[in-house]
């Protein structure tokens, strides 16, 4: 089973290509000028995931965004140890040859 997918449409970015409505007509409609509107609250069912993802990827102006974070639950952000000196990696005159900068 995959994660629940939620999308958002930024109508200010839409240029009216209509590709989204072609790929996922259950989620996108076009107004009289061809600009897209999101149908519903943006929650995508699992069976429609591929069609909506195709619409998202094919949007030439990137007006469709997926909402949420895709980080595994057990992933921890890297952190420096408590013993590490935060100034150890500063570029200084003493180590300028190592960093390759000149005055």
Automatic annotation (TrEMBL):
Stretches the record annotates as Disordered: 70-103
Any matching Pfam family: Fer4_15
InterPro entries given in the database record: Fe-S_cluster_ET (IPR051269)
Domain of life: Bacteria
GO MF entries: 3 iron, 4 sulfur cluster binding; metal ion binding
Keywords (A to Z) from UniProt: 3Fe-4S, Electron transport, Iron, Iron-sulfur, Metal-binding, Transport
Required cofactor names: [3Fe-4S] cluster
Protein name listed in UniProt: Ferredoxin
């Amino acid at each position: 089973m995959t994660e629940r997918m939620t999308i958002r449409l930024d109508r200010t970015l839409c240029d009216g290509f209509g590709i989204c409505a072609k790929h996922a007509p259950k989620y996108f409609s076009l107004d009289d000028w061809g600009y897209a509107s999101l149908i519903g609250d943006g929650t995508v069912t699992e069976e429609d995931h591929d069609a909506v993802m195709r619409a998202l990827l094919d949007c030439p102006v990137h007006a469709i965004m997926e909402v949420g974070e895709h980080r595994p639950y057990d992933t921890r952000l890297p952190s420096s140890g408590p013993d590490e000196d935060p100034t150890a990696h500063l570029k200084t005159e003493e180590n300028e040859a190592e960093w390759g900068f000149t005055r």
